[in-house]
Amino acid sequence: MALRSEINADVPVAAPGEFAPLPLTNAVSLWPPVVLAPMAGVTNPPYRSLCRRMGAGLYVAEMVHSRGLSERNARTVGMASFADDEPIRSIQIFGADPSDMADAARFLVEEVGVDHIDINMGCPVRKVTGRGSGSALPARPKLMGAVLTAVVRAAGEVPVTTKIRLGLDDDRHTWADALAATTDAGCRWMGVHARTAQAGYSGQADWDWIARITEQATIPILGNGDIWECWDALRMMRATGCDGVIIGRGCLGRPWLFRELAQVFDGTEPADPPALGEVLGVVFEHAELLVEYFGETKGILEMRKWCSWYTKGFPGSAVVREGLQHIDTLVDMRRWLSHLDPDIPFPARALRVPRAKRGHSQDKVHLPHGWLEQEDGESPPPGADSPAVSWSGG
Asked: Are 184 and 260 in a shared domain?
């Protein structure tokens, strides 16, 4: 039996026909029903390439601000770039102005040639919610509906989906309004991160809410939250009845998670996670892709965090990780990594170790002034068109 945590000790691989492909369009379905979550500073073309090769069903580009796209801001447009060999061009946008969101969708469809647009209604970060976007948008149902309708109309034949959280906090769930608006607008599916915006990434994702939402939905529901091992995806889908899963933090520094997911959904027991030598091979490949895409200076700067994520949990790696935070060249990186023993097996304790986003909650979700008192309003807040970048995909 492949290495797995105690919580997943008795989880079997998928039975033939147990799960169905996830429909994206009338002509395209995804198998396995697994989506790489959009994450700022993470799901750029190099990392999407790695995850695609490993077996991800869909791989969503970093989320971008609608106003930046509608104004053709060079940095924002640059984030909406795709490799020539990407068979499905998928991207997430965010904003609270229906006109800007529609302009962004038209640009992505007509100029970039995307095949799928996801709308972020789940990001909990202050500089996003403070402009009425992300998790703040479902708290204004009429404005949310206007945004979704505008994007779906502008996208035409290109499928539009949404991603949400349960609500702002435990006292103000917004998922029911989000589900209604997503369905009424004609969106293809809704992804649900089973935490509130206030919770951030703290505590445990409450999968019972995914089950409740799935029961009420007439469109596919994708579950998100605390999928660290391929077995977690099977447990979530069996427990909740959801139609697919979205993988975020669980794949940071572990793109082979998608290979394991593809195997268990196909009914095959996966091999153990890679030993350190194979992990380092992926590190070198990832670094070369980043350098080719960004150039060595920025590519290696990006690689610093990845080196930490890839090696986290391996014995004796702490000192090396400290050194890797100061590398400037591929040569520097290889020199530091050469201190590690390639024969060390993947440690069981690293299977469920969070990487990147910390597990703290917020005292409260930051919202535009008077946001909750304007529940029936359809106007975006002042400053909604100000570009913002977030580390989170929700």
From this structure: yes
In this prediction, residue 389 carries a pLDDT of: 45
> What single-letter DSSP state applies at residue 348?
G
Is there a domain that residue 14 lies in? no
What confidence tier does 357 reach under pLDDT thresholds 50, 70, 90? low
pTM score of the predicted model: 0.94
Q: Is 99 exposed, middle or buried (0-12, 13-18, 19+ CB in 10 A)?
A: middle
Whether residue 324 sits in one domain with residue 254: no
d(CA 261, CA 287): 24
Q: Give the pLDDT score at 348.
A: 93
What is the Cα–Cα distance from 372 to 383, expressed in whole angstroms?
16
Instruction: Determine the average pLDDT of the residues in 207-215.
Output: 98
pLDDT at position 391 is 40
Indicate the pairing of strand 167-169 with strand 172-173: antiparallel
- Within 8 A by CB and 6+ apart from 102, the residues are 150, 151, 153, 154
pLDDT tier at 390, thresholds 50, 70, 90: very low
pLDDT of residue 385 exceeding 80 = no
Q: What percent of the chain has pLDDT over 70?
A: 96
What does the alpha-carbon distance between residue 175 and residue 132 come to, in Å, rounded to a whole number? 16
Same domain, 257 and 280: no
Say how many domains are in the chain. Answer: 2
Active-site residue (options: 51, 123, 230, 242): 123
**Domain for residue 53, yes or no?**
yes
For 26, the domain range is 22-270+366-374
Mark whether 284 and 264 lie in a shared domain. Answer: no
CB-based contacts of 193, cutoff 8 Å, min separation 6: 122, 163, 164, 165, 166, 205, 224, 225, 246, 248, 394
Are 150 and 283 found together in one domain?
A: no
Q: Is position 51 annotated as part of the catalytic site?
A: no
